[in-house]
Amino acid sequence: MAIVGILVGVVSLLRKLMIGNEAPLHVIQSSASLLGEATIPAITLIVGANLLRGHKKSAAGMWVVMGVQVVRCVALPLSGIVVVKVASHFVLVGSDPLYHFVLLL
Question: Mind telling me which residue stretches traverse the membrane in this protein (predicted)?
């Protein structure tokens, strides 16, 4: 879905057809926006339902859980930093420090 959003934003003709109150296909953008606004309450309901069922024994072992945590908390942030630094070195992104900070988020 993000790729479709990028295409609509980049291609001027599609952007004029879908974005804005006077756009002929404004209903598509309006529908996508409505669905996007409903995701947070839906996720909250799903998490609440999972908590209501209670904790059950996990099929994953302790080492698998620790491995996932190491990847999520160490490897992914480090890889993001490396990608931004390499892109900055090859002048693929601007030199603004605030822009680099946003890319790291």
Answer: 30-52, 73-95
Contact 99, 93 (CB under 8 A): yes
pLDDT above 90: residue 83? yes
pTM (2 d.p.): 0.46
Question: Given the structure tokens 């890889």, which residue do they identify?
Answer: 79
Residue 104, C-beta contacts closer than 8 angstroms, at least 6 positions apart? 80, 81, 84
Paired tokens of 44: 């909250």
**Would you list the domain boundaries of the chain?**
1-57, 58-104
